[in-house]
């Protein structure tokens, strides 16, 4: 379960920011996760509870924002929604594209602390 390692890294970054800003408590953490990131949100939530135990982030709210996957068609110069895989067919012109523009995100988007 690589979600534990991902969450450890995210919480390390959160706690560094909390120390930098002399926070006493982290209230909310927002993560943006792309549909193609290969991360299971339920496993991430479980890892969050384990990793934050005994830290300034213990009891904080974890919000996970899902980012849909989108690819780009060079022929049509338009982005289009995709589900999974590596090569996608443009719904407009049917040309193949592997140019993924969105959906691989795995980012710490926001930290709320006091």
In brief:
The chain contains 2 helices and 8 strands.
The shape is elongated
Q: Decide which structural class fits the backbone.
A: alpha+beta
Q: Mind summarizing the main beta sheet? A: 3 strands, mixed
Strand residue percentage: 25-35%
Structure description:
A three-stranded mixed beta sheet has the order 2-1-8, covered by helices on one side. The chain has a three-stranded antiparallel beta sheet with strand order 4-3-7, with no helix packed on it. Strands 5-6 form a two-stranded antiparallel sheet. With 114 residues, the chain is of the alpha+beta class. The protein contains two helices and eight strands, in the order αβαβββββββ. The mean pLDDT is 94. It has a domain at 3-68 and 103-113: 2-Layer Sandwich (hypothetical protein PF0899 fold).
Break the fold down into its secondary structure elements and pairings.
Layout: H1 3-20, E1 26-34, H2 41-52, E2 61-67, E3 70-73, E4 78-81, E5 88-89, E6 96-97, E7 100-102, E8 106-113
Parallel strand pairs: 1-2
Antiparallel strand pairs: 1-8, 3-4, 3-7, 5-6
Keywords:
114 residues; alpha+beta; hypothetical protein PF0899 fold; 3-stranded antiparallel beta sheet; 8 strands; elongated
């Amino acid at each position: 379960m690589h979600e534990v390692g991902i969450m450890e890294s995210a919480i390390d970054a959160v706690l560094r920011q909390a120390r930098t800003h002399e926070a006493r408590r982290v209230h909310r953490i927002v993560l943006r996760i792309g549909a193609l990131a290969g991360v299971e949100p339920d496993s991430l939530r479980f890892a969050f509870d384990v990793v934050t135990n005994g830290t300034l982030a213990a009891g904080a709210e974890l919000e996970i924002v899902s980012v849909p996957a989108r690819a780009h068609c060079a022929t049509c110069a338009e982005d289009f929604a995709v589900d999974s895989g590596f090569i996608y067919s443009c719904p407009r012109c049917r040309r193949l594209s592997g140019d993924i523009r969105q959906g691989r995100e795995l980012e710490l988007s926001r930290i709320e602390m006091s």
